Amino acid sequence: MKALIPAAGQGTRLYPHTHTKPKAMVRLAGKPILGHILSSLAETPIEEVVIVVGGSMQDQITEYATELFGDAFEFTFVEQERAEGLGHSIYQAESAVRGEPVLIALGDMLFENGYKQFLDAHDDCRPTDGSIGVKRVENPEHYGVVGTNDRGTIEQLVEKPSEPISDLAISGIYIVEATGMLFDALQMLVEEDIRGADAEYQLTDAFQRMVEQDCDLTTFTVENWYDCGRPETLLDANRVLLNRLETNQSNGLEESVVVPPVDFGAGVEIVNSVVGPNVSIDDGVQVENSLVRDSIVGRNAELLGVNLEVSIVGDNTTVRGKPDHLDIGANSSIQL
């Protein structure tokens, strides 16, 4: 089985941070989102990973994946030249995936317990043409949803329905055995120009086409997931992962207090400050005379005399003064 990671999205909900890096390279809890995905996949039997990239910053993804995970996986990179939706992104990987089973892991979604549990759940569903992770939610109109029969077989899939057919939300993890039928369905959507309400080709519509072609699709339960494409949920994921993962310490503490969990990059200097809990600090950061908690601080940032909480600070940013909540992109300088 291969893994397929669509990571070509523009990440508009994470502006300004994604002006200077792909969404999958936004950092939390010690590494980029993509790093957490690949680390989790490394705990499974999967050895081949296909990543869909796009845009002018795709080299950041290819270089990171091959340099840090080249010993764990054989990588194939395919390009999505135009951002036309998740279905279109998956369709670009046809030559690398068709005919083989695949686990599709969205490039901005993290799961609390990793991917091995999903492969085990899929095995429990066999024989099946594919299985989709779902979770019961209170507001299904905001998600793709599935309707199932008494045997748990999927009978209908709808993307963000105004009148939900169920409360089973698609959680962004898919395991497909019948990849030929998946790509046939995606090809039909593209050739007939069938788009969703947002004018994009939807993966949900492709699965609906598979159901109409008598594919046997089932579901498995996902307990918790984090959509890292939004600042608030990115910070939620940072908190959870910092509490679950082993964090790095800093040798650059001077008259300062660290309240765990905190993850420090290399070359970090903390002077006369209190840092933590739930803080991720990238390489080369300088913090002086500050209080920092529940935040993500980018590479080579400077925090000088600030009281920072529930904030995301971009790379190469200098913040002076006493702000409380910030969402600042890279290469910025702010004095308050």
UniProtKB/TrEMBL annotation:
InterPro entries: NTP_transferase_dom, Nucleotide-diphossugar_trans. Transmembrane segments: none annotated. Coiled coil: none annotated. SUPFAM superfamilies: Nucleotide-diphospho-sugar transferases (SSF53448). Gene3D superfamilies: Hexapeptide repeat proteins, Spore Coat Polysaccharide Biosynthesis Protein SpsA, Chain A. Pfam families: NTP_transferase. Residues 2-242 form the Nucleotidyl transferase domain. It comes from the Archaea. This is Dtdp-glucose pyrophosphorylase.
